[in-house]
């Protein structure tokens, strides 16, 4: 007889044990992330088949003022078997749990790919005036698991939070990744374009040094990050956020998070925040100075993080979000070209989905968010 599937709160230790037993889990789904998102109420939950733990999630709750109802959000999760024949039961069990927690909507971001475009396909798309977006170019791979998850979510009443450029208020739907499984440093270098390989050699010739920093170097990263924000016109996060992120993730696992600094003759040229959980490594935040740009500090730091990822046994190096564009007139196309030069691939994920639990409140909330 099949045991019923239930969802119940679990301890941070139980949650971490589950994460450590998986090949890869998003760092947004680690118990340490609860200490980073201090402006949300958080809860670790587990899926149980009888008494056996078969999944885990970090749920973030954002309450609506004066109403006593919350948005329940599972960013880049949950960490369950998305190919399970009991997926519908698992999602319904989570729905019922957050409803008991007085959530008016359940928001998920399944970490499952639906489509992949290889570097050559992307370059061809950029040069083709008839193609302006990834979803207008024929993908090299269509993932059956991702397609099945999308179908299940629709059947359960979830609504896709789509955006023309691939970015919603939460996590990106399109990301750029470099596959590493079974590849050596030489393999990855050979997969890069000539400009990347030439620039890597240039950084070595010019004496650019890359080092792994510690907690004391978060301030140096933040100074470069603020300079980048002013130059690129985005609102930077405060230094306290990164200090909290470094402290929480490194306390959970000393190899979870690193600060990298590319330096030349005492000057910091570029700085990044790198995160790894199991076989998945992320280039999470990056910044560079306007000075000495010809020395290619950003190239040097990316190559070092890639090499360290390979050495750690990572199967993927994730450069995070990209916009859904192949249009040469788009201001983001320079960043796309930079990433394509690594020889990686663009990946479309299932994306973020809402399941309204209180239709009236959800409609009001959606109207408010659309007006912002």
Q: How would you classify the helix and strand content by structural class?
A: alpha+beta
Report the average pLDDT across residues: 95
Task: Give me the CATH architecture of the largest domain, please.
Answer: 3-Layer(aba) Sandwich
Enter the CATH topology name of the largest domain: Aminopeptidase
Strand order of the largest sheet: 7-6-15-9-14-13-12-11-10
Query: Helix amount, in percent?
Result: 25-40%
The coarse silhouette is globular
Give the termini distance in whole angstroms: 51 Å
Provide the gyration radius in Å: 21 Å
| Extended strand count | 16
Compile the SSE list and pairings:
Elements (H helix, E strand, L loop, with lengths): L4 E5 L2 H9 L12 H4 L4 E9 L2 E12 L6 E5 L12 H14 L2 E6 L4 E6 H9 L13 E2 L1 H12 L3 E2 L13 E6 L5 H7 L2 H12 L3 E4 L5 H15 L6 H14 L4 E8 L2 E11 L2 E9 L8 H15 L4 E6 L11 H8 L4 E5 L3 E4 L2 H13 L1
Helix pairs in contact: 7-10
What do these coordinates show?
By secondary structure, this protein is of the alpha+beta class. It has two domains: 5-109 and 352-371, Gcn5-related N-acetyltransferase (GNAT) (Aminopeptidase, 3-Layer(aba) Sandwich); 113-142 and 162-349, 3-Layer(aba) Sandwich (Aminopeptidase), CATH 3.40.630. It has helices at residues 12-20, 33-36, 87-100, 119-127, 144-155, 185-191, 194-205, 218-232, 239-252, 297-311, 333-340, 359-371; strands at residues 5-9, 41-49, 52-63, 70-74, 103-108, 113-118, 141-142, 159-160, 174-179, 209-212, 257-264, 267-277, 280-288, 316-321, 345-349, 353-356. A hairpin with a 2-residue loop joins strand 2 (41-49) and strand 3. Helix 7 (194-205) crosses helix 10. The relative contact order is 0.17.
């Amino acid at each position: 007889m099949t045991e019923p599937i239930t969802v119940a709160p679990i301890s941070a230790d139980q949650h971490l044990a589950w994460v450590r037993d998986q090949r890869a889990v998003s760092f947004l789904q680690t118990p340490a992330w609860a200490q980073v998102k201090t402006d949300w109420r958080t809860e670790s939950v587990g899926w149980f088949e009888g008494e056996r733990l078969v999944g885990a999630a970090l749920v973030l709750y954002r309450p609506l003022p004066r109403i006593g109802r919350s948005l329940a959000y599972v960013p880049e999760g949950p960490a369950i078997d998305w190919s399970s024949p009991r997926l519908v039961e698992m999602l319904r069990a989570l729905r019922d749990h957050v409803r008991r927690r007085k959530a008016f909507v359940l928001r998920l971001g399944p970490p499952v790919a639906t489509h992949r475009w290889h570097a050559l396909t992307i370059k061809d798309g950029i040069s083709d005036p008839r193609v302006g977006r990834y979803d207008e170019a024929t993908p090299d791979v269509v993932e059956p698991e991702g397609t099945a998850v999308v179908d299940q979510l629709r059947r359960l009443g979830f609504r896709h939070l789509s955006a023309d450029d691939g970015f919603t208020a939460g996590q990106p739907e399109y990301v750029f990744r470099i596959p590493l499984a079974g590849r050596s440093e030489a393999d990855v270098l050979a997969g890069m374009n000539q400009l990347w390989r030439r620039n890597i050699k240039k950084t070595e010739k010019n004496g650019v040094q890359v080092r792994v920093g510690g907690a004391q170097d978060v301030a140096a990263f933040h100074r470069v990050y603020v300079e980048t924000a002013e130059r690129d016109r985005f609102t930077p996060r405060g230094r306290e956020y990164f200090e909290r992120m470094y402290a929480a993730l490194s306390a959970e696992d000393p190899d979870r998070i690193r600060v990298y600094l590319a330096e030349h003759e005492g000057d910091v040229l570029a700085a990044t925040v790198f995160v790894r959980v199991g076989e998945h490594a992320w280039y999470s935040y990056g910044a560079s100075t306007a000075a000495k740009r010809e020395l290619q500090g950003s190239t040097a730091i990316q190559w070092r993080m890639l090499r360290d990822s390979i050495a750690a046994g990572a199967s993927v190096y994730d450069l995070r979000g990209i916009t859904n564009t192949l249009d040469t007139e788009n201001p983001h196309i320079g960043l796309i070209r930079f990433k394509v030069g690594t020889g990686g691939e663009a990946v479309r994920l299932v994306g973020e989905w809402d399941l309204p639990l209180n239709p009236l409140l959800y409609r009001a909330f959606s109207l408010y968010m659309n007006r912002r």
